[in-house]
Amino acid sequence: MDTGFHFKFTNDDASRLLWGLIFFEICLVLIFAADVVFELPRPLHKLFSLDREVTIPAWFSSSQLFLIGIIFLLSANRSGKHEVVPARFLLLVGIGFIFLSMDEAAEFHENITRTLRHLEWAPQFKGGRGVWIPIYLSIAMILLVTNLRAVVTFWKTYRREALIILSGVLVYLLGAVGMEIVSYLFLRQEASTGLYQTEVAFEEFFEMAGCSVILYGTILFAISDS
Q1: Got the DSSP string for 137-205?
Q2: What CA–CA distance (Å, rounded) separates 33 from 40?
Q3: Which residues, at least 6 apart from 160, have a Cβ–Cβ distance to it below 8 Å?
Q4: Which of 22, 42, 116, 202 is the most exposed place for a label (fewest CB within 10 A)?
Q5: What is the C-alpha to C-alpha distance for residues 136 and 132, in angstroms, rounded to an integer?
Q6: DSSP of 35-93, one letter per residue?
Q7: Rounded distance between C-alpha atoms, residue 73 and residue 75, angstroms
């Protein structure tokens, strides 16, 4: 008896969701820009700032990552559905995204930096920033290498969905790592400048949009495997 879940979305539903999410993210960036230019009332600033934690944009990104993780976990739980792609690989991916969701909400990587920044041997940027980046990238590379066969199998079996997910991951990394490094190197000492605020807007938009594209690809994977 099949005890797994059945995904009721269609491809058109997934496409509409993607564009709806992108539209919402653009609105969040526009509200942030309005705050920078016009200085919105403090309650709105605290709710919609892209450069703070525990805000609507932060919880929105966390929710997307959590949903991606849940879909992978539920997919792994389908009995008899993953004789080609190992269920343990899908479980690992799901747990990884849920961890990223928790990180977004609970500031894990910021706390790692605060804890290790005083260690001279720890790789870091100016001002002791970015200690988390080599740690996270090293863990990601280890997991990739140790699960390379499953990654290749997933790519071959679900080529379109994997390509979309990979595109989303690259956009997400452009914001979460690429723009963050630019900020650490050139802009953090001028946190009140328009250039820094522009960087924040692009960084957070890339992160949110990357999550939306990953979610879109994940939903297409769940649909194709239903």
Answers
A1: HHHHHHHHHHTHHHHHHHHHHSHHHHHHHHHHHHHHHIIIIIIHHHIIIIIGGGTTSHHHHHHHHHHHH
A2: 10
A3: 220
A4: 42
A5: 6
A6: HHHH---HHHHHHH-SSSSSSHHHHHHHHHHHHHHHHHHHHHTSTTS-SSS-HHHHHHH
A7: 5
The three-state secondary structure class of 54 is coil
Tokens 């997910």 belong to: 165
- Span 86-122, pLDDT tens digits: 999 999 999 999 999 998 877 777 777 667 667 665 6
What is the rounded distance in angstroms from the CA atom of residue 134 to the CA atom of residue 1? Answer: 45
Tokens 């990223």 sit on residue:
100
Sign of CA dihedral 16, 21, 24, 25: negative
Instruction: Quote the Cα angle for 3-100-204, to 5°.
Output: 125
Note if the pTM is more than 0.70.
yes
- Dist CA 8 CA 184 (whole Å): 43
193-206, pLDDT tens digit by residue?
778 888 899 999 99
